[in-house]
Design brief:
By secondary structure, this protein is mainly beta. Helix content is 11%, strand content 38%. It is built from five helices and 20 strands. The strands form four sheets. It has a seven-stranded mixed sheet. It has a five-stranded antiparallel sheet with strand order 4-3-2-1-5, with no helix packed on it.
Length: 268
């Protein structure tokens, strides 16, 4: 099995990067692995930590309509160059954390995606150079308020709510170009999304190169590479599972958030 790099929080509230062992213990690193982190000799026993989102990016850049069939189901043509948008880092939640459906939206959908983790500062690179900047791979759910995305002239609100970027559960450094990505909801055995990552319109190295010609990418930054067809609505109580072959499974429960209640503080 490939090395699984994690970020964890102990019962004392301390956060660490580490290597997850087969017995679920964690070997602690002295800093993020893409910054040259080394094992410091400490070991966390199973059941003494919580898995966190595996990195803390300065930004999340996402690619829209990067699978032909998904572009078609969204009612559009395959783009001639990558469609980019940003998600706020406050949208990130940990594996097993709750996706919160906001009261502003009547249709919030899952989007299972391969996420790239940038390992070094990069700017203005060719694709053959950009591949070396991809330190590893993890799983993301690009949660989207679809009705708001369609009603707004841009995607910030529909993509940007808190909890709209589940990430994890860990990072691996290698993945097969034919790895399968699948999304399951609740106990339905048939996946709602299923594709191989080589079905992307724009490959990971091309995406990194394209973005690097616009903005500087920093170590730990996350790039979401697009979702296959089969996106669908989530409801409170649902449990969403996104699996990518060679990485693992990201799972989160869905809950609803009540509208804000503004109290009248004026006296009669």
């Amino acid at each position: 099995m490939a090395d699984r790099y994690v970020r964890v929080k102990t019962s004392q509230g301390q956060s660490y990067y580490g290597l997850l062992e087969l017995n679920q213990s964690v070997k602690i690193l002295d800093t993020a692995p893409w910054l040259g982190g080394k094992l410091n000799g400490e070991l966390l026993a199973p059941d003494t930590y919580q898995l966190l989102a595996p990195c803390e990016p300065s930004k999340i850049i996402a690619v829209g309509k990067n699978y032909s069939a998904h572009a078609a189901e969204m009612g559009g043509e395959v783009p001639k160059e990558p469609i980019l948008f940003l998600k706020p880092t406050t949208a990130i939640i940990d594996p097993e954390a709750e996706i919160v459906l906001p009261p502003q939206s009547k249709r919030v959908e899952y989007e299972g995606e391969l996420a790239l983790v940038i390992g070094e500062r990069c700017f203005n690179l060719l694709p053959k150079q950009a591949i070396a900047c991809i330190w590893g791979y993890t799983i993301a759910n690009d949660v989207t308020a679809r009705d708001l995305q369609r009603s707004d002239s841009q995607w910030t609100r529909g993509k940007g709510f808190d909890t709209f970027c589940p990430l994890g559960p860990w990072i691996v450094q290698e993945i097969s170009p034919t790895a399968m990505i699948q999304t399951f909801v609740n106990d339905v055995k048939k996946p709602f999304q299923s594709a191989t990552i080589d079905e992307m319109v724009f490959s990971p190295d091309y995406i990194v190169s394209y973005i690097s010609q616009i903005m500087t990418l920093l170590p730990g930054d996350i790039i979401l590479t697009g979702t296959p067809e089969g996106v669908g609505a989530m409801e409170g109580g649902d449990r969403v599972y996104i699996e990518i072959e060679g990485i693992g499974k990201l799972q989160n429960t869905v809950i609803s958030r009540l509208p804000s209640q503004v109290k009248d503080t004026e006296e009669d």
